[in-house]
Amino acid sequence: MNPAARIAGALPLPLGRRQAPSAESVDGFFPAESMIRRLHGQRIVAISGVRALLMQACDPLAVVGFDRHSKIFSDPQKRLVSTDQRMSRMYFGDKETALRTGAEIQAMHGRVSGKVTEDYGPIPAGTPYAADDPELMLWTLATLADSALLYYQRFVGRLDDDERESYWSDYRQIGLLLGMPATSMPANEPELREYIQERLGDGSLYISGDIRDRSKAIIFDPPFRGLTRIAVAPLTEAIKLSSVGLLPPEIRYLYGFSWNPVREAMLDASVLQIRIAQRLWLDAVRKHPAARAPAGDVFGERPRRVT
Question: For the chain, N or C: smaller number of CB within 10 Å?
């Protein structure tokens, strides 16, 4: 335990209050020691959602549904926060919370369906789409898992094959919570990587100029203004650099992002600085708020009183 935590633990609690254990320390839908909690307990891994969102925007059939039924482009920051809250409830919540959250997402997906009204890249007009289609859901699930693995390994520490496999096994449970059949998901982590590589090379990904411009705003137009924008500039610059640099080259090409050895060196330096700095970060900075929340609270909702 670090010195700050020891001091905080020694302070008397207010009369009539007791200290609830943190969500990460109590078994829920996922065990406390699970790999999915280990990765998503790190706040830095949450940044991987930007990379995942940029990749998801390159699935042409899914993006039609996104554009008509979601805030992904009109309010991407709100979309990122909403996704983080719901996923964190499944990562760190108890069984009841995880099942309820999965059911809520399934209900939302069930309301998103229609037909493509005009040709969009390789997708002809009239093509039906539905958010609960396992094939469309798989690209979203895969990009979230792949991005989390990549960010953890770059910014936190190495994962061996067994740890990567255990993480994907956990993440398949997320897919089941969202209503995906087990047979619709890669059976193991190497198959997950194979699936992503196939999608990157089979010509099925596409992004229009309009969607490309709106997607770039996710990373190049952060929602900060005035002095706040200046204060968080180092963090937003790191997010921008990693969001572009850690994209697969095929996705960078679709967006028209340039990349070169100089930018690669800048990214490596940024990664090294963060890896070293994390050793000094307090848990309040290093750990995801959902991991630190009192066990039993629903992340993103008004916390319950503990008496």
Answer: C
pTM given for the model: 0.85
DSSP at 34: -
Average the pLDDT over 44-69 and give the result. Answer: 84
Quick one: how many helices (H) and strands (E) in the chain? 17, 2
CB 140 within 8 A of CB 62: yes
DSSP, residue by residue, 72-124 = TTTSHHHHHHHHHHHHHHHHHS-HHHHHHHHHHHHHHHHT-EEE-SS-BTTB-
Domain boundaries, the chain: 32-292
User: Mean pLDDT score of the chain, rounded to an integer?
Assistant: 84
What's the CA gap between 250 and 248, in Å, rounded? 5
Chain-centre distance of CA 22, in angstroms? 21
Do 36 and 30 touch, CB atoms closer than 8 A? yes
